[in-house]
Amino acid sequence: MITDKQIIFVGGKGGVGKSTSSAAIALSYANQNMKTLIISTDPAHNLGDIFHKKIKHDKTELQENLWGIEIDAENESKRYIDEVKNNLEGLVKSRMVEEVHRQIDMASATPGAEEAALFDRLISIIIDESKEFDKIIFDTAPTGHTIRLLTLPELMNVWIDGMIERRQKTNENYTQLLNDGEPVEDPIYEILQKRKRKFEAVREIILDQNRTGYVFVLNPERLPILETKHATNQLDQHDIKVKHLIINKVLPDYADGKFLVQRKEQEKKYLKEIDEVFKNQFKIQIPLLEEDVSDLEKLKLFSNYMDQLLKEEA
């Protein structure tokens, strides 16, 4: 059951209601007196707009039992690069420091650098904050970005294994040539080993189905169905199981008028398709509300639907 999970990732196509669903889940837990943290990894943050508060790069209190973080990728990238430079302090000769820093600054401008920094922050939050919070909810970016983020621990493990192996061979050569058989001390090797341990710890948490849950949000329309099917299959190949779907903006039974009646007929076909395609997932339907979720009162209304339907799962 999703209610049992400590860490929940909420994903889906852009515009289907991921942030609203993430916020509603977080609010529901907070109102049940569970200390809850919600984090947006989407560069186009919406949490601050939903809660009508400026949410910072670090923890911001939103209400009793509820804190939020909007990760600033640019800020995180700068912090990440500074940390890399600090790690190398004392490891390179002083005359080389300027050149090494220049190379690191150039690397920070390459594609994927911000993603690496974001991933590093995600690791820190999962490892450090999970000791303090009962529930951690991740409001993720649209599907492709989320898949890359969640599969990075596996990919990074392969990459860092190769780095460690090469470093080990270099150390063995130095040991034989220069150190008379005595093993050399290598801080870089130790840093690589430390990062490997962090990747392994996060991957273990991500794959722990007792602790971590994955929820995808979709609307009963053709493109969100196709994208969700593709995403769940792709994540499944990495042993990440999406077991819950929120079907958002379902037309309510009382919707009337010729236009809505026609839309509802089409929607029935898509709901049937969702049932057929996602046989193994628990599904929650949220009706299309009469008004946008533009303030806390309406978010509470959305959250109430979530509460009621989560109880049905239990």
TrEMBL record:
ArsA/GET3 Anion-transporting ATPase-like domain segment(s): 6-306
CDD domains: ArsA
Superkingdom, natural source: Bacteria
SUPFAM superfamilies per the UniProt record, alphabetical: P-loop containing nucleoside triphosphate hydrolases (SSF52540)
Gene3D superfamilies: P-loop containing nucleotide triphosphate hydrolases
A Pfam family it matches: ArsA_ATPase
GO molecular function: ATP binding; ATP hydrolysis activity
InterPro entries: ArsA/GET3_ATPase-like (IPR025723), ATPase_ArsA/GET3 (IPR016300), P-loop_NTPase (IPR027417)
Matching NCBIfam families: GET3_arsA_TRC40
Family statement drawn from the similarity comment of this UniProt entry: Belongs to the arsA ATPase family.
Protein's name in the database: Arsenic-transporting ATPase
Species whose genome carries this gene: Halalkalibacillus sediminis
